[in-house]
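Long-time lurker, first post. I've been practising inverse folding by hand and with some scripts of my own, and I keep getting stuck on stretches where the structure tokens seem ambiguous. Below is the full token string for one chain I'm working on. Before anyone asks, I'm not after the true native sequence, just a reasonable design that respects the backbone. If someone could post their per-position residues I'd love to compare against what I wrote down in my notebook.
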């Protein structure tokens, strides 16, 4: 049985974890930082 109350609905997405948030941070690959010119070009194209 599902309850659609606001408190229940929002709590469905939040849960306690035994693993700290930053636990796997060092094992994640570093993402490249795009060149500023490329970012500006994409931003202006989206306008």
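-- Answer (accepted) --
I ran through it position by position. Result:
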């Amino acid at each position: 049985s599902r309850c659609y109350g606001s408190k229940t609905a929002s709590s469905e997405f939040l849960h306690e974890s035994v693993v700290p948030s930053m636990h796997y941070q060092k094992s994640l690959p570093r993402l490249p930082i795009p060149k500023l010119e490329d970012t500006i070009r994409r931003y202006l194209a989206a306008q």
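A couple of notes from the structure itself: Helices lie at 6-11, 36-45. Residues 2 and 8 are 9 Å apart (CA to CA). Happy to go over any region you disagree with.
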